[in-house]
Amino acid sequence: MIGWLPVSEFFLRALENSAPKTEISIVSNKDLGGIIVLGGSIEGGEIIVDRNEVSLRSSAERITKALEMIRKNPNLPFVFSGLSGLISPTGIAEADAFRRLIQEQGLGEELAHYENRSRNTYENVLYSKPMILEFGSKEESGQLKPWLLITSASHMYRSIKIFKKQGLDVLPMPVDYQTANSLQWTMFDLLDGASNWKILTHEIVGLFAYWITGKI
Q1: What is the pLDDT of residue 120?
Q2: Of 30, 66, 83, 114, which is most buried with the most CB atoms under 10 A?
Q3: Could you tell me the residue range of the domain that residue 102 belongs to?
């Protein structure tokens, strides 16, 4: 059950497909309030301090897609949200590491905002909300335009639920897909299977915990 990939991929694919990707080609940047990137893709701890280099995790697509969208939409404000997922974080915050990446890429920081206190998805939204409300582009009526949300595909469904609970409208830009459109019926891999189940368990527990506590 763990190693036969179609079992885990079936459920994980359903989770990843629950929030279809926004067709950015048909969305004008005039219709967007900004870009928000959720942390969880930068290796924190002492690595950045000791090695003087920013290391990315397997979910590096959150960063590469963010840099792409920021480069293509230089007039939009953006927020990177994240301290660390560790109980006792050390080193520098993910948001501060992303600030360094922005500087290394030569991107402008006039519209950059960094939230470096959050340690989970709920805090990502809670601590970013004041920045979104203050710096987000608005309609003529004063209504806040939706923000483009970048995070892993498996993490997108829970993230959207939390944003909606906080009264914020977002457009999903899921990345870091772990499944394809077709199942690999003959594939058996204990490592990949265990990884898929870990992601699924993490999201299911997170959804249940946030539902119980009224966060979604």
Answers
A1: 94
A2: 66
A3: 20-183
